[in-house]
């Protein structure tokens, strides 16, 4: 089984090739959670995720014959970029197989690192089978995203850096998809600090490792904002390491992850993808478990689609009461809309959208229904606005609030 020595050797191979990313305390998150929270900024790697560590460690150990032929990987995400980037740096041919539905930006970014991208199949499984077939036909070395000792050892260097920076950590909370990152980190942590608590985090929509290790039968979902850990079946090698070395696995919901993304953006001014926020989501969900302890979290990746990010930020504003939807019913007389907008202005709220209509309403025909989306300072401000509208004799209700 993977050993501390494997990871230490990987660290020597990687020292000139990947960033030893910052590992620093977040004072604000520490205050909010009651734990001492340290963040490992793997989203600052050149390809914006830890995945390039494992890829680089694997590529650095190829024989001359393997190097001459090149490598192949299957990935629609961060692993693709990690393999492509380090293959380019080492002057190796890299073929990346991606499913046909992969967003164009990911395809272009991977091509930008000099890889040959092959789009094949409608599912990750189809793409994987095709990659194995190509590897066979063209004698390419397959670089697995997690189920490979060299890849696991490379990912484990994250844990080595964390514990060398802050040796007295009490707990590590790490996202688990295929389990490569956690397998590597757990191997290091168990050897260097046996009493540390190791907690893996999966999204409730993709609980494959939880099911495998716990014998539970949580259903598998189809999509999640944490696509980096949306793995349908856990790794064979990683599963064995996690079974032996990890204390617990927990599940977080989509809302928990969204909230963690917005908090990291607002508080730390740092952008993470869904999987990168899973660790913080787990601590926010069970703060009592970590209170008063030193906790290390890995911000494992930062590749998030800008449109998805925009939606998450807006939903976060709704959740925190800074964006509210209010329905006002009034008599349909000239100047009514102006009166309502004036009242909103007096209350110090800003109008984002106005929807004014007569047909789709159950009110009397002489009435009009106006829907406003307003920017406010928070829940208290919303209440002030509603009471101001009601005091003016208008019917005003808050809609669709969390």
Automatic annotation (TrEMBL):
<dbReference type="InterPro" id="IPR002912">
    <property type="entry name" value="ACT_dom"/>
</dbReference>
<feature type="domain" description="ACT">
    <location>
        <begin position="325"/>
        <end position="402"/>
    </location>
</feature>
<protein>
    <submittedName>
        <fullName>Threonine ammonia-lyase</fullName>
        <ecNumber>4.3.1.19</ecNumber>
    </submittedName>
</protein>
<comment type="similarity">
    <text>Belongs to the serine/threonine dehydratase family.</text>
</comment>
<dbReference type="InterPro" id="IPR044561">
    <property type="entry name" value="ACT_ThrD-II-like"/>
</dbReference>
<dbReference type="InterPro" id="IPR001926">
    <property type="entry name" value="TrpB-like_PALP"/>
</dbReference>
<dbReference type="GO" id="GO:0004794">
    <property type="term" value="F:threonine deaminase activity"/>
</dbReference>
<dbReference type="InterPro" id="IPR036052">
    <property type="entry name" value="TrpB-like_PALP_sf"/>
</dbReference>
<dbReference type="InterPro" id="IPR005789">
    <property type="entry name" value="Thr_deHydtase_catblc"/>
</dbReference>
<dbReference type="InterPro" id="IPR050147">
    <property type="entry name" value="Ser/Thr_Dehydratase"/>
</dbReference>
<dbReference type="Pfam" id="PF01842">
    <property type="entry name" value="ACT"/>
</dbReference>
<keyword id="KW-0456">Lyase</keyword>
<dbReference type="InterPro" id="IPR045865">
    <property type="entry name" value="ACT-like_dom_sf"/>
</dbReference>
<keyword id="KW-0663">Pyridoxal phosphate</keyword>
<dbReference type="Pfam" id="PF00291">
    <property type="entry name" value="PALP"/>
</dbReference>
